[in-house]
Specification:
Rossmann fold; alpha/beta; 2 domains; globular
Length: 360
């Protein structure tokens, strides 16, 4: 039997609380003034009754607003079963049917010891989808900055055994429009991205040395960008070559969200699903070949059609987990949640969600 937990993002919960307090105060003031004007006609008890009635109405309105917001919230499915079977099961829960060529976007993982999602975990799902594993080359050097080396990494890590492997920028790049943002006016992706109609964004949720955390939005915003597109996002739309380091943290996090918005608009929301695996929760990304050992236990697998809701739910679960101090510090020190704040502002998704467990 499915267990459902409605989760309201902190900003909405605080907003409703403040609205409730303001409404109660206004109601009391109005009632008191009315009672004073009619003191010679009505007993003081009438003032109390009116005040209580007003407070009850405010409370009811606040609860109704919260219920309405929750009812409209996107669903995030959860399972604690981190296995090949659990991954297929949570995919099935989404009820999503691809219509054409399926790209499965993963991180191939930087050698020698990163925490990338292993082929034995994802293989059954990739085969079920008849999907092609896709990636782009990096913009920071390392073993995956050139196509020949990157293909060797994919082979060494076992991905070429379970599916076809496509380096999307191997033959160039493509530009897709981005509207409605403040940092980017286009997204720059590997040219082979145009060969796919449907996308499974399969991400390992963990910390990140530049974004605070990496999940679905990071996997798209940087992972589907060509090397010049990666520089473009990292530098908040200011350049397409050179270093990826940039001195305005919030600006680049906003660009990260905007890239995903451009990608989603071009591909179509109905053609994309997002799955995050919360295991090996190091403070370091899979782009780090020597990540810190996790202090936090494995949590589960989550899936949604809304990348903002999905990443927000993972952040919330980290805050609830034991041993989370180092990962929380990493996220907060880099203002990682700002990616989600801006993503919601530009309409990419919702930080309010309904978390539904598919575990029996």
């Amino acid at each position: 039997m499915k267990k459902s937990l409605r989760v309201i993002a902190a900003c909405l919960a605080i907003g409703l609380l403040l609205a409730g307090c303001a409404g109660s105060h206004t109601g009391t003031g109005t009632s008191t003034q009315s009672a004073g004007q009619q003191a010679d006609k009505e007993p003081a008890a009438a003032s109390v009754a009116v005040t209580k009635e007003s407070e009850a109405e405010v409370a009811a309105d606040t609860a109704e607003t919260a219920d309405a917001a929750a009812a409209e919230a996107p669903v995030v499915y959860f399972t604690s079963d981190i296995s090949a079977e659990g991954l297929v099961k949570i995919y099935d829960a989404l009820g999503w049917t691809p219509e054409g060529n399926v790209a499965v976007k993963i991180s191939t993982g930087e050698p020698p010891a990163s925490n990338y999602l292993r082929p034995e975990l994802i293989g059954d799902l990739v085969k079920k989808l008849d999907g092609t594993i896709v990636e782009c080359n990096t913009a920071y050097g390392g073993s995956r900055s050139g196509s020949a080396m990157h293909r060797q990494v994919a082979e060494d890590h076992g991905f070429t055994v379970i599916a076809d492997f496509d380096l999307m920028d191997e033959e160039g790049e493509a530009e897709w429009p981005m509207t409605g943002g403040t940092r980017l006016d286009r997204v720059i992706v590997g040219s082979h991205a145009e060969n796919y109609t449907d996308w499974v964004i399969l991400s390992h949720f963990k910390g990140h040395a530049m974004a605070g955390f990496g999940g679905a939005i990071k996997n798209v915003g940087i992972g589907i960008s060509s090397p010049s597109g990666k520089v473009y996002v990292h530098t908040a739309g200011t350049k397409t070559s050179g270093s990826i380091w940039y001195n305005d943290q919030d600006a680049w996090l906003e660009a990260l969200a905007e890239m995903v918005s451009g990608f989603s608009s071009h591909v179509g929301k109905d053609h994309i699903i997002y799955i995050n695996v919360m295991n090996r929760l190091s403070v370091d990304c899979d782009c780090d070949g020597h990540p810190a050992e996790p202090d936090i236990h494995d949590i589960g697998i989550l899936a949604s059609t809304d990348p903002v809701a999905l990443d927000q739910s993972c952040v919330d679960l980290v805050y609830q987990a034991e041993g989370n101090a180092s990962l929380v510090k990493r996220m907060e020190s880099l203002h990682g949640v700002h990616t989600l704040e801006h993503a919601e502002e530009i309409g990419l998704g919702s930080r309010t969600y309904e978390l539904v467990s598919i575990d029996d």
